[in-house]
Design brief:
Oligomer: single chain
Largest sheet: 6 strands, mixed
Strand content: 15-25%
Number of strands: 6
Distance between the termini: 53 Å
Shape: globular
Amino acid sequence: MDGGDPRDGTPGSGSPAGRPVRFRVDVRPDRGRGTVVVAPLGELDHDTVEPLATALGEHADAARIVVDCAGLDFCDSTGLNLLLRARARALEADGRLDLAGLRPPVDRMFEITGAVHVFRVYADVREALADAPLADEGPTDAPPAGRGETSAPGAGGARPGDPV
């Protein structure tokens, strides 16, 4: 066996000596809509950031990337900076990078840093995919009024009624 790909969880993706992988990234492209769901799983930090950086780079041409954070147990400043840079690249290419499923303690870090107000943040991937822009709407930097904001308690993100 070739060791598998830790980004997609294929067999053999465990670390040497059979220890579980501390971090991996699953990618689910939906080319029909131009959206790619990137799901980091585990702890995102300086030592584990490379698989996510690679996945985001490989799909930088997507019209939209939704980062499913539901499986993210931890994110340090390295991970936050990677997501901010990837969002900036997406905007430069007339695309979008949105977040879904933020949960403690990751949502707290996004709130403390103010980054939660930079991204479109959704309660979960299903909600994010339901809010896909219409083909003639084009990408946008700002969340649509009353849509796209996370309203689930503790989920992080801009909420209806929050000061701007």
